[in-house]
Amino acid sequence: INAGQEKSTELHWYDAEGDYIDSWSLIAANAVPWGITTDGTNIWVVDTGTDKVYKYDMDGTDVGSWELEDENHNCHRINPSTKLH
């Protein structure tokens, strides 16, 4: 989502060899993406503008979102198997 210093609301997928696979746009409310992770079934994107985590399926369909709790409101990365950081 963030390549260098330029933020984008477009997600680009590449395989392990660096070959381009696909891209899709994040929903409008997810305008300040900061951290991203996937478990191969879903994608979660932390947004520092809304203090929410947005969930997408692997095709880029918006599945939902939830607000971060106060102790996590300044979250910069996410790991689906543990906690927000």
TrEMBL record:
Classification via SUPFAM superfamilies: Thermostable phytase (3-phytase) (SSF50956)
InterPro entries in UniProt: 6-blade_b-propeller_TolB-like
Name of the protein: SMP-30/Gluconolactonase/LRE-like region domain-containing protein
